[in-house]
Amino acid sequence: MTVERQSGVAGAIARLFVAEKEELPAVLAGFVLFFLLFTSYFMLRPVRETMGIAGGVDNLPWLFMGTFLVTLAVVPFYGWLSARVSRRQLVPAAYLIVAASLAGFGGGMAADPDNVWLGRAFYIWLSMLNLFVVSLGWSLMADVFRPGQAKRVFAPMAAGASLGGLCGPAVSLLLVEPVGHSGLLFISAGLLASSLVAVAYLLRWRAAHGPAESAVENAARPIGGSVLAGITLVARSPYLLGISFFVLLLVSASTFLYFQQARLVEATFETREAQTQVFAAIDVAVQSLTILIQLFVTGRLSQKLGVTVLLTAVPLLMVAGFLALAVAGAFPVLVAVIILRRVGEYALVRPGREMLFTTVDNETKYKAKNAIDTVVYRGGDMVSAWIETAINALGGAMVVALLGAALAAVWAGVGWKLGRIHDHKAAPV
Questions:
Q1: How distant is the alpha carbon of residue 94 from its chain centre?
Q2: What domain range is 216 assigned to?
Q3: What is the DSSP string of 334-399?
C-alpha cells in the first residue's frame, strides 16, 4: 500500500512523514529519538556558548584544540566498546555513559558554579559528546532503513531533531534562572536516558521488518574490528575520503561564522545569562524554520531529485552569503547568514549526508561514520579555528568572508560528486 492510498488519521500522518504504513511506527520512533537527543543537547548548547565566552573569545581556538584531542582519546574507547558489545547493545551502553557524565558535570557546577576551568572542561566535553551521540543515532537509522526508504523518511525523522532543537533553547530560556546551569544538566541527562525507549523499539522493528542480514552481521554479535578500525576504513576508501572532505568544507564555513558570532555577542551582551538567552533565541529561530522545511520539503525533494540536490543547494547559497558579509558585515547580516547556514545544514545537508551511509556495510556505518562525524569534524573545527583567527587578525572580517565564499564553492562541487556516486550506488539493479 502506497503512502498516497492510505486514509484516516494513520494515513494523514504517513503522508506527512512520507512513509509507508508498515514503516510509520519506526519513523515515529526515530522522530521521538531525535527529539529527545536534540532537546537534551540544545538546552545545553546556550550554556556551552556562555562557558566558551567566559574564558574569552581569544581562547576559543584552544578550546577547539582541546575538543579535538579529547575526541582522539575517546575514539579508541568507542572502538574497543563496539568490538566487544553487540550491535543492539552498543547505542544503549554509549547513551547511558554519556548521561552519567552530564550528571557528573551538573554536580560539579552545583558545587562551584563560577569555576572557569570547569566551564572550559564542560565546553570541550559537550562539543565532543553532541557529535558522538547524534552520529550514533544516525548510524542506527542507516542500519534500520534501506536506501530507498531513507530518501523518504530521513528528513521527516530529522524534523524530530529540529523540534528538539526548538524545545531545548526554550527550556533554557525558561529555566536557566530558576534552576541554574547545573539544573539544566541534570534535566538533559534524564532526557538522554529516556531516549533508550525509542532505541529499543527501533531495534525490535529492525529485527522484524528491516534489511536482511547475514549470520556474520547478526545484531547479537559485536561489530568487531580493531579499536582504530573507523579511521583505517576511511583511509582505504575514496568514497569515505570524499565524505570526509565534504565534512571538512562544511566545518570551515560553520567555524568562520561561529567565531564572528562569538566576537559580536561578547562585545554586545555583558552578563552570562543575557548571552545564554541570545544564543537560545537564535537557536529557536533556526529550529522553527528548519522543522517546516524538513516536514514538507526535504523528503519530497530528495525523492524527486536525489541526494545530489540536498548536498549542493546550501553550499551554493553560502557562496552568496559570504559575499554579502564581505560587502556588509553588520550584525543583522551576520545573523541572517548564520540562520541560513544552520537551517540549510539541518534541513537539507544533514539528511543528505546521512543517506550516503545507507549503501555501506555495518562496520562502516557504526565505525567509519563515527570517525568522520567526530575526529574529522573536530579536526576540521580546530584547523579552521586557527585559520580564521589568523586571517581575522591579519586581514579582517572581509578577507575571512571572501575565503569562506571560495571554500563554499568547492564544498558545492564535492557535494555534487558525492550525490551522483550515491544515487548510482542506490539505484535498483
A1: 17
A2: 3-426
A3: HHHHHHHHHHHIIIIIHHHHHHTTTTS-HHIIIIIHHHIIIIIHHHHHHHHHHHHHHHHHHT-HHH
Coil, strand or helix at 396: coil
HSE at residue 413, side-chain half, CA atoms within 13 A, is 6
> Is the pLDDT assigned to residue 12 strictly greater than 70?
no
Map residue 113 onto helix, strand or coil.
Answer: coil
Beta bridge partners of 222: 86
205: domain CATH number is 1.20.1250.20
C-alpha cell at 342: 544552520
The answer to whether 403 and 259 have CB atoms below 8 angstroms apart is no
Q: Measure CA of the first residue to CA of the last residue in the chain; give whole Å.
A: 23
Task: Please tell me the least confidently modeled range out of 140-144, 228-232, 266-270, 329-333.
Answer: 266-270
DSSP 400-414: HHHHHHHHHHHHHHH
**Distance between CA atoms of residues 400 and 393, nearest Å:** 10
Long-range CB contact pairs, 323-327, < 8 A, 24+ = 323/401, 323/402, 323/405, 325/260, 325/397, 325/401, 325/404, 326/398, 326/401, 326/402, 326/405
Which pLDDT does position 219 carry in this prediction?
A: 54
State residue 328 phi and psi, 5-degree precision: -140, 95
CA geometry: angle 158, 196, 22, nearest 5 deg: 55
* Confidence band for 63, pLDDT divided at 50, 70 and 90: confident
- DSSP annotation string for 35-77: HHHHHHHHTTHHHHHHHHHHT-GGGHHHHHHHHHHHHHHHHHH
Phi, psi (rounded to 5 degrees) for 216: -65, -35
The confidence band for 408, taking pLDDT boundaries of 50, 70 and 90, is very high
Cell of 299: 523528503
Q: Are 248 and 376 in contact (CB under 8 A)?
A: yes
Query: What whole-number distance in Å separates Cα of residue 199 and Cα of residue 295?
Result: 22
The C-alpha atoms of residue 201 and residue 203 are separated, in whole angstroms, by 5
With 0-12 CB in 10 A as exposed, 13-18 as middle and 19+ as buried, what is 183?
middle
Nearest to 33 by CA among 138, 145, 173, 176: 138
- Nearest Cα to 298, choosing from 144, 162, 418, 135? 162
DSSP-assigned letters across all residues of 153-183: HHHHHHHHHHHHHHHHHHHHHHHHHHHHHHH
Report the C-alpha gap between 193 and 186 in whole angstroms: 11
Alpha-helical segments (H) within 146-271: 147-194, 196-209, 229-236, 238-268
Q: How far apart are CA 371 and CA 349, in angstroms?
A: 18
Based on the structure, what is the number of domains in the chain? 1
